[in-house]
Design a protein that fits this description.
heterotrimer; A mainly alpha (247); B mainly alpha (221); C alpha/beta (246); B: mainly alpha; MetI-like fold; 8 helices; 0% strand; flat; C: 246 residues; alpha/beta; six-stranded mixed sheet; four-stranded antiparallel sheet; 37% helix; globular; L-glutamate ABC transporter membrane protein /L-aspartate ABC transporter membrane protein (chain A); transmembrane transporter activity (chain A)
Chain lengths: 247, 221, 246
């Protein structure tokens, strides 16, 4: 075997300016977080709206939300990404198209595509969790809310959603983690996030194992931190006496 | 939009789909087999085995599949080179298959574990009481019941895996998506081919998950 | 000669002691009924006999073989003791026939024909030959429990353990199961039965054991147990008055 193990590789110069390989990882991680957080905020908002729609009476709104979920759940993420990056921009109005393709630097246009893609993809999943959470509540809750004179909107805002969101924190956490992992597809349209930087390091330095080990460790630590954060949130919002909360 | 070139391109798209399905079937078989072994290890009394299985599952669940695919593409040939001492051409298909099996096993493990735990303790007691060994009790009594119960979940995971096989694009394997991309570029209809590919994935995934839902309803009765 | 010998058995779940120094025996051909309030440890005790529940102290000898000895081949030992469970525990994915034959073939190594013949013989004895091709889910609770007894008998056991065999049954099905057990007792089967059915105990038991809080409080001949109530411990009398009030 002629593999040269070198765990100091991360502190060595990349040969480009004064950068060391670690700088690449730091910048990659920065992009990963920027993509995931932005997409998550949109996914959470859109997914909540869709989730509520699925539980509303009537036919049209639930059907729209259902169609949305089925569409975004049954097309591979990568196909969706290519759509947002290669196809959709060509159908934008002329000025927007020029802005997206020529004025923006490539990293920004890739960033926008991947954020839109992940946000809409994840919204379908969030929608299902929100719907499940609302449907898990006792039926008496919405009846009681309407009985005290709340409108449908108030019923959701003050009674159903505050309870539903508390129930679904664990599955939402795993969607939150997924969006970080899924953001790695951005590497396939040239955004230099964590995976792309790892690959580049592996190819530049030939220290494949070190590069991927560090990437793994970063994802692992990221995962653990997010899980800890979410369980803190869960504890913080827990209602005494409800669903295993402190009495 | 002009979809005129799709029909003449169907043979080459079908070649891509064959690769996708081949990869899927092998990955599912390998993933469920390894996942079952991991689940049994995870539930065993040995702290070493269950600790290993737990670490394995946590590890693969916290990293992106795309990272595993990319890493294995680079690493599997090197590792085999170390083991065998000579250069072996592995090929992207094999390295992707290994990546999928190892990655999916972590997810299948959790499904299988939940399935086994859903079988009442009385069943294993009854199997032991008639003199069965651990392996007989698992093979003849517990696993057949558990697999029946978890069939819908296993199928759902398989549909997700079907979509995830498109990630082999990253290492240049010509699966269905990549075939559509390449063909679309040649034909100058890249948008149309991409939309067509998306529609095919949609029809298959949606159709399959509708069937799974129906199966789930039937099993629930 | 003792078929089952329980010697100073104690068992803990963590810090909680579930069995305290239990000692008794069941002789060949004897029928022993174990009763006591729920949580008294009677089900745990009967499950220690075929090592479904491990114990930390003492030993149990079944037909000369130590259950506690780590070198004992437990599957082989269990194959010789029949057990009937509260919730029947037929294998729901297998037909009645397969439930009766699977262990005979896989554990005892009998041929398919032999296993089939034996299985059908006992299925006939519990009066369910017509149900051979059904699945457990298609039978009533009483029928399932009779099949479970037939499944155990088909292994030619040297003794039978019954763990509350009638307590999960609807009242109208209790008797069909008890009738089978009475018949078995009359034929001389060695039986250890955890049950609240005092009528059954009066009819066929040789001895009655009363347990409370993990310990054996009473262990005496049936005639003494039921005939001389005043000599019973306070707790046994309370228990009996509750049970017999029904």
């Amino acid at each position: 075997m002629n593999y040269n193990w070198d765990w100091n590789i991360f502190f060595k110069s990349t040969g480009i300016g004064s950068e060391i390989y670690l700088d690449w990882f730091v910048s990659g991680l920065g992009w990963t977080i920027a993509v995931a957080l932005m997409a998550w905020i949109i996914a959470l908002l859109l997914g909540s709206v869709l989730g509520v729609m699925r539980t509303l009476p009537g036919k049209v709104l639930p059907a729209i939300a259902t169609a949305y979920v089925e569409l975004f759940r049954n097309v591979p993420l990568l196909v969706q990404l290519f759509m947002w990056y290669f196809v959709v921009p060509d159908y934008l109005p002329e000025p927007l198209q020029i802005w997206f393709k020529q004025d923006l630097n490539p990293a920004t246009s890739a960033y926008i595509s991947v954020v839109v893609c992940l946000a809409l993809f994840t919204a379908a999943r969030v929608c299902e969790q929100v719907r499940t959470g609302i449907q898990a509540l006792p039926r008496g809750q919405s009846a009681a809310a309407l009985a005290v004179g709340f409108s449908i909107g108030q019923t959701y805002r003050h009674v159903l959603l505050p309870q539903a969101f508390r129930i679904i924190i664990p599955p939402l956490t795993s969607e939150f983690l997924n969006i970080f992992k899924n953001s790695s597809v951005a590497s396939l349209i040239g955004l230099m996030e964590l995976l792309a930087q790892t690959k580049q390091t592996a190819e530049f330095s030939a220290n494949i194992f070190e590069a991927f080990t560090l990437a793994t460790v970063i994802y692992f630590v990221l995962n653990m931190s997010l899980m800890t954060l979410m369980s803190l949130v869960e504890k913080k919002v827990r209602i005494p006496g409800m669903m295993g909360g402190a009495k | 939009m002009d979809f005129s070139q799709i029909i003449p391109s169907l043979p080459s798209l079908w070649d891509g789909m064959k690769l996708t399905l081949q990869l899927l079937l092998l990955a599912v078989a390998g993933g469920i087999a390894l996942g079952t072994v991991l689940a049994l290890a995870r539930m065993s009394n040995s702290a070493l085995l269950s600790g290993f299985a737990k670490a394995y599952v946590n590890y693969f669940r916290s990293i992106p599949l795309l990272l595993v695919i990319t890493w294995f593409y680079l690493a599997v040939p090197m590792i085999l080179n170390w083991i065998t001492g000579e250069f072996v051409a592995v090929g992207a298909f094999t390295s992707c298959l290994v990546a999928f099996v190892m990655f999916e096993a972590a997810y299948y493990c959790e499904i299988v574990r939940a399935g086994i735990q859903s079988i009442s303790k009385g069943q294993i007691n009854a199997a032991y009481a008639v003199g069965m060994t651990y392996s007989q009790a698992m093979r003849l009594i517990i696993l057949p019941q558990a697999f029946r119960k978890m069939t819908p979940l296993l199928l759902q995971q398989t549909i997700i895996l079907f979509q995830d096989t498109s990630l082999v694009y990253a290492v240049g394997l010509i699966d269905f998506l990549n075939a559509a991309r390449a063909r679309g570029d040649i034909m100058g209809q890249s948008h149309e081919f991409l939309i067509f590919a998306g529609a095919v994935y949609f029809v298959i995934s949606f159709g399959a998950s509708s069937l799974v839902k129906r199966l789930q309803k039937r099993l629930a009765v | 000669m003792s078929m089952i010998e329980i010697k100073n058995v104690s068992k803990w779940y963590g810090d909680f002691q579930v069995l305290t120094d239990c000692t008794t025996d069941v002789k060949k051909g004897e029928v022993v009924v174990v009763c006591g309030p729920s949580g008294s440890g009677k089900s745990t005790l009967i499950k220690t006999v075929n090592a479904l529940e491990p114990f930390q102290k003492g030993d149990i000898i079944v037909d000369g073989i130590s259950v506690g000895d780590p070198k004992t081949d437990l599957p082989k030992l269990r194959a010789r003791i029949g057990m009937v469970f509260q919730n029947f525990e037929l294998f729901p994915h297998l037909s009645i026939t397969e439930n009766l034959t699977i262990a005979q073939q896989r554990v005892l190594g009998r041929s398919k024909d032999e296993a089939m013949q034996k299985g059908m013989h006992y299925l006939d004895r519990v009066g369910l030959k017509a149900q051979a091709n059904k699945f457990p889910g298609q039978l009533s609770g009483g029928q399932q429990q009779r099949v479970a007894i037939a499944r155990a008998l088909a292994m030619d056991p040297i003794a039978m353990l019954f763990d509350e065999p009638t307590s999960a049954l609807d009242p109208e099905m209790v008797n069909e199961v008890l009738d089978v057990m009475v018949e078995l007792a009359h034929e001389g089967m060695t039986m250890m039965c955890v049950t609240h059915e005092m009528g059954f105990a009066r009819k066929v038991a040789n001895r009655v054991i009363f347990m409370d809080r993990g310990a054996i409080v009473e262990d005496c001949e049936k005639e003494e147990f039921f005939g001389n109530i005043d000599a019973r411990s306070e707790r046994a009398r309370q228990f009996l008055s509750k049970i017999l009030a029904h």
